[in-house]
Amino acid sequence: MKPSMIKLTTLLFLFFQLGGLQAQIQKGQVSKDKTISSEIGTTEKHQYKITLAKNQFALLEVLQQGVDLVVTTYDPKGEKIADFDSPNGKYGPELITLTSVDGGEYTLEIGHLNENQPAGEYALSLQKLKPKAATLSEKVDELFIGWDSNETPGAAVAVVKDGSVIYKKGYGMASLEYDVPISPSTIFHIASVSKQFTVFSILILEKEGKLSLDDDIRKYLPEVPDFGKTITLRHLASHTSGLRDQWNLLALAGWRLDDVITKEHVLKLVRKQKNLNFAPGDEFVYCNTGFTLLAEVVARVSGKSFAEFTKANIFEPLEMSNTLFYDDHEKIVKNRAYSYYQDSTGYKKSVLNYANVGATSLFTTVEDLSRWALNFSTGKVGNEAIFKKMNTPAVLNNGKTFGGALGQFVGEYRGLSQIQHGGADAGYRSFLVRFPDQKFSVAVFSNDASFNSRKMAHNVVDIYLKDDLKAEPKKETENKKESIVVDVNTLNNYVGDYELQPGFIISVTQENGQLSAQATGQPVVSLIPLSKTEFDVKGIAAKITFVPGDAEKIKLIKLAQGGQIMDAPRVKSFDKTAVKLSDFTGRFYSEELSTEYHFKVVGEKLLVQHRRLSDLELSPVKEDVFSANAWFFGQVEFVRDANNVISGCKVSSGRVRDLWFQKKD
Question: What is the CATH number of the domain that holds 273?
Answer without folding.
Answer: 3.40.710.10
